[in-house]
Structures
1.
Amino acid sequence: MNAGDPMVYAGAVGLILIGLFTVITRRNLIKIIIGLTLLDGGVNLLLVAVGYIQGRTAPIITPAHPDTARMVDPIPQALVLTAIVIGLGVTALGLGLAIRVYGHYNTLDTRKIRGLKW
Amino acid sequence: MRAFIGFVALSLIAVGLALALYHIPFGQDRMDVARDYLARSVRDTGAPNVVTGIVVNYRALDTLGEVTVLFSASLGVGMLMTWRSPGGGRPLPGASLIVRRGAGFLFPFILLFGGYIFVHGHLTPGGGFQGGAVIASAFLLLYLGIPGYLLARRPLAAIESLTGITFVAIGIIGLAVGGYFLNNFLPKGSVFSLFSAGVIPILYMVIGLKVGAELAGVVANMIGGGEE
Amino acid sequence: MIYIALLVVGMLGAGIAACLLRDLLAAVVAAAAVSLILSGFFYLLQAPDVAMAEAAIGAGLTTAIFVIAIRKTGRHEE
């Protein structure tokens, strides 16, 4: 990480947009869930990037680095740790629903599933 | 039409995010409450890993909520997947000899690694969630490597319930001893040693076992071979 | 600087591949690549806890349950 590196922001926003595009335009349910995981990853990266501070170390105190004034913001990291685990729960539940839908309609295409098309 | 609406919505969101991020320069110090957490973490919680201090001590109630959400998701997957769908559910093909032997050989070491990660959660990077995920991936390896492997449902459910009860019980003991829920009532010990930081290692161990059992249960339910 | 640019381009490329590939298995592998590069970013942004969680959960378990779900449904997006 060099001085003034906003490219990480560009990556995070790009990932959010790709995820949203996938969710909006794809018609396969599993593809939509893949889009949700991409969106999730982009938001997580954005949060951690906002908490990053130039030239500081990870928020773990060791005998060699006891100076807490030289550490990055730990709160976004704690938040994102939670978000990643919840993201897995959401993905698993979504995939379970998709498998059930496939068992019922024998397709994952949202156009052919009654009540899901727009 | 759909793609057009998508592009319009995406450009609006892109402009909004760009405008917002323009006012948040990258890599600047804008800590507020975090400065306090960093300065007081070792004194308050005894955990040198400040992220662990926040997750398991300052914001432990949120972590209880998170574990509950994960439990609900696991429960939902279990309820959705017990009804066998007519089309799906082909049995997994048999793995080769190397994969079978390798899975059996590596399984205890992966479990040990997961346990190491969550036992040392207050000292080094890692903790209950990462260790739990590693333990769940050990069971995934068994499913992939050993044909016809069935994860016993009862011990898994027992671990899940017992760890959940333990989490809440530790919180209530803290309420009784120190006056607030999930109070760190045990002695802090000396910093940087394994047995330090009061209830944090115990709580993270509980979280690790619970997350491991829940994620292994999710994998078992998704594969659909866990029926008794 | 150039490493960061390469990582960003690689991550976005894998994301676009995950969006556009018709073969769902290939799309899931591309999404796993995104997770792996994300984990590297978390490490570079001084968040080792988050990097471990993303590598174990995002790149590992999520991919596994996607593959299981694709096995139980169809592999190709019609």
2.
Amino acid sequence: MKDARPPLSHAQLVARMRPRPDAAERLAGAPYLTDRQHPEQLFGAILGSPHPHARILSLDLSAARALPGVHCVIAADDVPGCKAFGLRHVDRPVFCAERVRCIGDPIAAVAAETPEQARAALAAIRVEYQPLPLIDDPQAALAPDAIALHGDSNLLHRETHRHGNLAAAIAASQHIVEGEFLTPRQMPTYLETEGGIAEPDGQGGLTLYFGAQNPIGQRQTLAAILALPEERVRVVNGPLGGSYGGKDELTIQPIAALLALHSGRPVRLRLSREESVDLGVKRHPMRIRMKSGCDAGGRLLFRQVEILADTGAYATHGPEILDAAVEHASGPYRYQALSIEARLAYTNNGIAGAFRGFGAVQVQFALERQMDELAALAGLAPDEFRARNLSDLNDRGPLGQVVAPFDGPRLALEQIRQHPLWQGPRRWQDGRWLHGVGMALVQRSDGFSKAGPNGAGLEVALAADGCIEVRTSFTEMGQNLLDVIRILGARHLGCDEARIRPRIGDSASGVDSGPSAASRCTTVLNQLLQRLAPAWRARLQALVGDDGLEPGADGLLDLQGQLRLDYAELAATLEADQLPVERCAFAGEVTPSDNPIAHFVFGACAAVAHVRVDRWTGQVQVLRLSNAGALGPVVSPLGYLGQLEGGLLMGQGMATLEELPMREGRYLARNLDGYFVPTLLDAPQIEVIAIEEVPEGDEIGPRGVGEIGVNIGAPAVANAIAEALQMPVRQLPVSAERVLDHLERQP
Amino acid sequence: MIDIEFHLNGEPVRLRCPADRRLLDILREDFGLTAAKPGCAIGRCGACMIWLDDAPANACLLLALRIHGRSVRTYEAVCRDPASQPVRDALAEGGGLQCGYCTPGMVMTLAHLHQLPEPPDAPAARELASANLCRCTGYGGIRRAIERLFEPAEGSAATPIRPCGDPA
């Protein structure tokens, strides 16, 4: 049946919240992985390249090795297994041997008894470089005579999507808008920089305690680098102080592991904020040329998009991010013709990689700007123009693929159209302040594309104390995974929430749930537990030899609902190796269409933003940001609200504030005095509305909420600024300087 | 190297260290008190907030020579003090922490303000806590905590969000 319950208001979500399961531990000051100490510990340090592009002519470690307190100094020759890593493209060296391709590219590392000794040893390493021509622009990188950073071309990836007759659609268009949009190099800015401790186990193996999002995947890569069997490597990924995608890929873990194995001692390795700015991944800056047209009645006819993205020195998630840009460049709208062409270039500009919003937010900014521009040309209000062009419930997805039926965009748009903020005035002046109200609508994919990795495993076990352990390799990053596991575990397994004991974020569980990424954890856990529940019930019934008993809150219940056997009593009757364990694997919800980059499941948000811009200083202030999410049933109200509030402000940051400047391959800001993230004073009054309705027959249930706040926040704020200033916003962030430049050009 | 004496969480302690050793390193590495976090190490994020003679200060900006003869209180002591309970409860119940990395610093600031003889009103508390960065929450839960802990601005009743999804 169609689930048509009314939306949950912000106040209702707040009223339903309860503290996180880990709140008490966090509030007691419990340590993070970068706080771990070991009595035998050494301190690691990395020698990074001072040049963004250079040949290494010689490397001499001997003086460093001779210094007091130094236990080992290692470089590329000391890597026993794979010398590079990466996802689809294994192109990132653990240590550079011949050539460095970005600032801070690791060349060597040391482990010493004190941080001071480690730094002294770095200073004693002798490297001779021959600087190479710098490639700091993606367009120049693709020139035929450009020096290739990898292989024979800097074109790392190209993706296109076309349908319909573009020339005919352009010819039939009454109104056409065209422009070039630029998006910033945004930094995840997790407050805990990359780091942790690598501890040898004394038998040739080791454990890595480093905050990340995928312990099993990382174990596999690390084992290959270390030339160890996977079972000799254990990876613990949490607790961690923020990630937002930025810690999904390995960074310094291979170096920490090698230092620990070479020295035979636990090695702590932690990047300073400056080192983290150099080595951490950023959002891909994109240059987006977009042209769109509609007929006289305001019906969209075509969209033509050319995307050029800067992936920096190594591939990491770059190709998938470009694919996401292609899939999200057309939005939840219908067209007669689409032409999307995207290219991804290697440059010497740091490293771009996974970051919440993942390739989509950049194009959604351009797309939603042009929706407003076209609406104005067609003489329609922005909401009306969008409503006229929405895809239908049973339409194909943005790449022509079969998708799970979903009318979230329509539901979200309807909520925001009737919102009091949208119903009120949209532009007015109040002394030196110019006010504007703008809106946006986005859909975004859930989980990975058809190419995966979509598979996920889960294990449920009865523990000796009567608790039911739910084991997954997913990681708690603040999204409230622990409570999601408790809520969904109790719902599907029939027991009380207090009985559920989550086991997460550790490769030692042997359970591979895949990456905690792509907003997928809640959706996937729901599917896994739903599939596992019948087997769990049958297993418990078989154990007591009575299929008339049902799993209940505290144990097995008879037909009258009376407790017959407490879980703890059941556990007490069993030997440790007889305790029931049920495993479940889920291949993932993928589109039946034959397109590796296409997704099957989408969620949607619409938002309205109110900004005011100071005509004297150019400063943009966001006063209100109200979002309606059509993301299926809410599992954890606190998680839902918190993920959207956090995502929305991160999107606002991209639209108003955040840009990491680079010149000639070097970062012009390397700490939080030059890269600004929103503070408590920048945060608007954020409202979150949850539309739980899903179509009849929906089998997906809850959609991911982890990223979409970013996707909707940036375009909604950009549109409000454009309205306030009557400014053709083509570049983010809309900094005070850009506002003043615009105002100065006004008559 | 210098010899310094100071009070750490009420106990007198002595230390011989370089005069420019940062209090943040002294706490974390020498005393194993790791609740103060190195987020930026330049005084911009507030994750290493401690109380120096009962006033909040960034431990990353304090050198050893500056703390001689002073009193330092860290989150390890403050979180065990019942006086900070309302702040911790307000953050937990309002959703004021996600990854939790900024939380000790945030509590140090808010608990200090909350325990002042004349606490600020909520807008002033927001301003005073804006030197503590949080990257996860969008400050939604932190705003809810502040609204619960501090009086609304004088003369202007807090303007609640007009709900649009409510049946009423």
